[in-house]
Amino acid sequence: MSQTTTPAEARTVQSAPPPGADSARTRTIGRVKRTLTPYGFLSPTGVLLIILMITPIIMVVSYSLLDRVITNKNPAFVGFDNYVEVLTDPVFFTAVRNTLVFTISSVIVHFAIGLAFALMLNSPLLKDRTKAFFRVLYILPWLFTVAIVAVLWRLLLSPNGVVNYLLGTAGLTDGQTEWLANPSTALAAVTFINIWSGYPFFMISLLAGLQGIPKDLYEAARVDGAGVVAQFRNVTLPQLRPIIISMALLDFIWTTQQFALIWMTTGGGPINSTEVLSTFTYKLAFTEYEFSVASASAVLVLLMSMVLAFFYVRHQKARD
User: Fold this and answer.
1) Average pLDDT, stretch 294-315?
2) Which end of the chain is more exposed for a tag (fewer CB within 10 A), N or C?
3) How many domains does the chain contain in total?
4) How many whole angstroms separate alpha carbon 258 and alpha carbon 249?
5) Residue 237 sits in a domain of what CATH number?
6) What's the CA gap between 303 and 256, in Å, rounded?
7) Is the pLDDT of residue 188 over 50?
8) Which positions ≥6 away from 162 have C-beta within 8 Å?
9) Is the pLDDT of residue 1 over 50?
10) DSSP string spanning 265-301?
11) Would you say residue 4 lies in a domain?
């Protein structure tokens, strides 16, 4: 007896999905979810970057192309006139020179002091308690905020401060030197303060690098007859080179953007002797109310920082 199929049953059979269709659809949905999940986790950070970084940068760039922005309701488009005004200002080149002197001196001495202290703290000649004491002592400058550092050294370097008293007692000066108010000594003084407060960054990083060098390398060098200097030159420095380059680039970027320390000690004076790019830009905006010119100066600083950041990222990729 033959079995007949009604039209409704035939439509049901024809509309039924082929075998495995549900599993293929499930795999596709799962693949899409796995692809979008990382972006979902990154989306809050992306939104914050757009709001707090990308949007302000776009606004500053647009301000730099306008005339008398913020103070004028209808600012006119002036193109690159603000950049020309900044680049023809002699104070700008004074700020660039002071920034380079301040930054290069700080980075070099940061490295020298940090390496010397790191070698001492990694030396087997010192006992563990002695090392612990000096680690706490040497890292103290890094624990102070910029405001505390500025106030502390303003008191120490005042005409009636401890530094003048000690130098006067030793007969090295007359004991009344205006370290932060004298154009010939102000830049050296703020550079010294920045060195004092920043060398622990190098010290900690280099100490970690020294502790990661395999002991076998030093044993092999001693077997080959290498002395202490030869071991330092042929083993220690090559092993620390990636860390040194990374720390130097980071320190260079951070020091070029130093503002709070200089502003709270000298304010860029006296007579522009400690004027750097950050204080120069700040004064244009909030002292002279030239927001358009200040925006142009800020864009120039941003471009310089991007060049340094490019070399840092390139070094990190080469290191990886």
Assistant:
1) 88
2) N
3) 1
4) 15
5) 1.10.3720.10
6) 12
7) yes
8) 155, 156
9) no
10) HTTT-STTTT--HHHHHHHHHHTS--HHHHHHHHHHH
11) no
Residue 17 within a domain: no
Q: What does the alpha-carbon distance between residue 174 and residue 157 come to, in Å, rounded to a whole number?
A: 14
Tracing tokens 């799962």 back to the chain, one arrives at 30
Which three-class secondary structure state does DSSP give residue 66? strand
* pTM, two decimal places: 0.83
Structure tokens at 34: 């796995």
Taking Cα atoms as reference points, which of 94, 254, 262 lies closest to residue 190? 262
Q: Is residue 224 in a domain? A: yes
Query: Residues 28-43: pLDDT tens digits?
Result: 887 888 888 888 888 8
Nearest 5°: phi and psi at 77? Answer: -80, 125
φ, ψ dihedrals at 66, nearest 5°: -115, 165
pLDDT at 5 over 60: no
Phi and psi torsions of 92, nearest 5° = -60, -45
The answer to whether residue 231 is domain-embedded is yes
Query: What is the domain range of residue 246?
Result: 83-319
